[in-house]
Amino acid sequence: MKAVRLVQVGKPLEDAEIPVPKIGSDEILVRVAAAGICHSDAHYRENISKIDNLPVTLGHEVAGRVERVGKDVTNVATGDRVCVHYLVHCRRCEFCGRGLEQFCRSGQMIGKHRDGGYAEFIAVPATNVFALPDEISFEAGAIMMCSSATALHALKKARLKPGESVAIFGFGGLGFSALQLAQAFGAREIYVVEINPAKLALAGKLGAIAIDANARDPVEQIKDATNGNGVDVSLELIGSAKTMRQAVQCLGALGRAALVGLTAESMSILPYAELINKEAEIIGVSDHLATEVPGLIEFVRNGKLRFPPATLRVVDLDARQINAALDALQHSIDHVRTVIVPAAPK
């Protein structure tokens, strides 16, 4: 089968022909219909997020149809439409027992520790897939499984309550979902901090208060807009020490800053003025949970989370096109997400 693989960090991904994966008794083979290109994949390519088991097929945002099932599989059947939860976990350790599979002692991430969805087929445990309703496209089903699911997890970790205000730093795939999900949670005012004019305009159309970080310090703009009070919740989705600090600085009393973006930079905080005196919190957000996926699917089914075609770009299962999309993620692209759609079988 065709796959696009990371062979050496710091180098472009490469086209490859590899065997169709074999499946175990509790696994399924999925024919990939769509695979999202995530900023994390760019981090793996550049070795910002360490990856050791090379070569590997990237791609952790995956949706498709079940091609084959193992003999012990009962929850899905051949031909079913599915989306894939990317954390493969043991289900036996203390963290799995608490439903916190992102900390599984022997966990593996699809598209990092084991081959992912930049391919025609992917093998996964049957317990890692969820039924994808007919009314949700494969493209939406794929990107839901990282950017949307992580945005939902971040809002839950931040304990967002109806009537509270939110500042979202970054309006890519995560921010696009976070805005709509915050609205579904009943947030009062939602500020979106961005530098890209097209994304600021889109955020405004979706009901957010657009904050142009190029115009003036975004913390000052948020403080001015809130009469100096700051916001209840902030989400940092960019992965920059500068914006992480801003996410903390814009908080009001009892505010919670949920940090999602990946960075190797350090961040300085004034403990008294920015945390202690406000009883504010900084919360780390890692991945998301399988138990959150059914609720996320319902948000999409109910129209509370939408993915208009204009927000997506589609590329082929082709190394040149995928590398170009990863390169573009280093800049502030106008669209929200790029999705790989492999050619249909002849």
Describe this entry's structure for a reader.
The strands form 4 sheets. Strands 3, 5, 6, 9, 10, 17 and 18 form a 7-stranded mixed β-sheet that branches. Strands 13-12-11-14-15-16 form a 6-stranded parallel β-sheet, with helices on both faces. It has helices at 39-46, 94-97, 138-157, 173-184, 197-205, 218-225, 241-249, 271-275, 293-301, 319-328; strands at residues 2-6, 14-17, 27-37, 56-57, 61-69, 81-84, 87-88, 108-109, 121-125, 129-131, 166-169, 190-194, 209-212, 231-236, 251-259, 281-284, 312-315, 337-340. It is built from 10 helices and 18 strands. The protein is globular, with a radius of gyration of 20 Å. The longest helix is centred in the middle third of the chain and has 20 residues, at 138-157. Helix 3 (138-157) packs across helix 4. Strand 15 (251-259), helix 8 (271-275) and strand 16 form a beta-alpha-beta unit. Helix content is 27%, strand content 25%. The mean pLDDT is 94. It is an alpha/beta fold and 346 residues long. The two termini are 13 Å apart.
Helix count equals 10
The oligomeric status of these chains comes to: single chain
Largest β sheet strand count, sense and barrel closure: 7 strands, mixed
Order of helices and strands: EEEHEEEEHEEEHEHEHEHEHEHEHEHE
Q: Whole-number average pLDDT?
A: 94
Work out the helicity level: 25-40%
